[in-house]
Amino acid sequence: MEALLKSLFMFVIVTLMIQKNAMAAQHVVGGSQGWDESTDFNSWASGQTFKVGDTLVFRYNPGLHSVVELEGESAYKSCDISSTVNSLSGGNDVVKLNKPGTRYFACGTAGHCDQGMKLKITTVTGSAPSNQAASSTPSSSSAVSLGFSSAFFTFIAAILTVLMSLVFLL
């Protein structure tokens, strides 16, 4: 009986951990075009729901672009990239949305922000699924994670629990 209780407890813990990770969305900024001057970031962002726990992925040519997080709306509107909160230049940068509120991003390359290479997003709290369909193309990791739903991960957790029960009983 004690082994069964331990297994049930493990199942609940594993399921909760998997469910939390499965609900977070990965938003590839700009979708299939990525972080590029030709992308309309206002249109792209308007089709998204950004939630606490989600991530933004900025994909770009690191020799040509970079990502700077700006301090506020006035810096965003005027493309003042001298007042940054964070600066990234790796070409495949991930930004975790860890609290609700509005955040502002721009390309750090001179003139690119003025050409529209900037992004304003508002992160919300909540448990409704993020809009992943518009965040990227079917070949991206967002769409792949959409295919592996939380039900799949719950099924895997159930199998692990049964296996652990058998180990405890033997």
From TrEMBL:
Residues 25-125 form the Phytocyanin domain. Pfam families: Cu_bind_like. Gene3D superfamilies: Cupredoxins - blue copper proteins (2.60.40.420). It comes from the Eukaryota. Coiled coil: none annotated. CDD domains: Phytocyanin. The chain crosses the membrane at residues 146-169. InterPro entries: Cupredoxin, Phytocyanin-like, Phytocyanin_dom. Keywords: Glycoprotein, Membrane, Metal-binding, Signal, Transmembrane, Transmembrane helix. GO terms for cellular component: plasma membrane. GO terms for molecular function: electron transfer activity; metal ion binding. PANTHER family: BASIC BLUE PROTEIN-LIKE, BLUE COPPER PROTEIN. This is Phytocyanin domain-containing protein. It comes from Capsicum annuum.
